[in-house]
Each structure stands twice: as C-alpha cells, then as structure tokens.
Amino acid sequence: MSFKKPHQKLDARFITQEGDKFVILPKGLNIVWGNDSRYWKVPEQGAAELTQVSWLEVSGVVKISNPKKYKVTFEVKVKEDGFGWKDTDVLVMAKVGRAGKYIYKATKISPGCDMSIPSDSLEIDVAKPSDLHFGLYEVWSGKWKGGLQILRAVVSPTT
Predict the structure, then answer these.
(1) pLDDT digit string, tens, across residues 43-79
(2) Which of 33, 41, 63, 147 could make an S-S bridge to 79, C-beta 3.0–4.6 Å?
C-alpha cells in the first residue's frame, strides 16, 4: 500500500526568475496539509485554495545570487464565504539562510478582499549570496480558517 505524504513539498519548476525577481506559483511552495484534499485544493495551475485548517503554514525558498534588499509579498484573495480571519493576524516572515533570524509583518485579512500581503512590503537585506526563506503563517490563534486563495508569492528587489 503506498502512502501519500500529507504536506506539499515545493516543486522548483513552478518558480520563475526574471533577473533578480522571483515569482512562485502555489505548486512552488511548501504547504502544510497541501496534499490532503480535506484541507487544501492545489491544482496543477491556478490558485491554491484553503478549504479549512487551524494551522496555516505556506513557505518557500529562493536562491539569491545578487546581494541587495528584497521585498516579499503573497498575492491572495479571500472568498466572500471565508471564515476564521476576524481579528486574526496573518504573518509574512523571511530570513536569510537556514539559521537566520526571522523578520515579519502582520496583516489582517477579511472575506471578499484581494490583496498583496503584507499591505506594506516586508523588506530584508541579503548581504551575500544565500537562500532566502519566506512564508505565510497563522498558527497561533487555534481558529479554523478557510476561503483563502493563494495566487502567488513574489520576491523582488526593492526599488
């Protein structure tokens, strides 16, 4: 009997790089419970849709070869029937290297919104070629959440 792992591991084929800008589609992200259709719908193309989870953890990594300051954003939609978001902070976090220290920005989202989060960009200085780890998290409230659609993550140099 084969065992399907419950978490989606990133597929590098869904990460595109144009110069120093990276666009990461949902299949290019690690999604906790992403391979379990009770919690997520992650099609080959298009948005990943959160059905329901109490532990939101979506992360990725890109290799930065040109040191400079970068910004990290997630482009998302929350469906009108989205739930569990009221008074809940969603964090976008980033760190340089596996052992780096995370920086983060919190954003509140609500049903019926389309947005880039964080609403004001999260910027991180990459001083030397390294991996940039980043993610979208809500793991502290214990609330069940649903209706979030992740369109893409973007890592790009600040202007």
Answers:
(1) 999 999 999 999 999 999 999 999 999 999 999 999 9
(2) 147
Domain extent for 53: 16-157
Helix, strand, or coil here: 158?
A: coil
**CA distance to 86, 112, 136, per residue, from 143 (Å):** 10, 19, 16
77-97: pLDDT as tens digits: 999 999 999 989 999 999 999
122 part of a folded domain: yes
Q: Residue 27 and residue 130: Cα distance in Å, rounded?
A: 22
Find the CATH number of the domain harbouring 68: 2.60.120.260
The candidate with the shortest Cα–Cα distance to 140, out of 67, 91, 68, is 91
Asked whether the beta carbons of 54 and 142 are under 8 A apart, the reply is yes
The structural domain count of the chain equals: 1
Lookup: tokens for 142:
């214990």
Residue 91 resides in a domain: yes
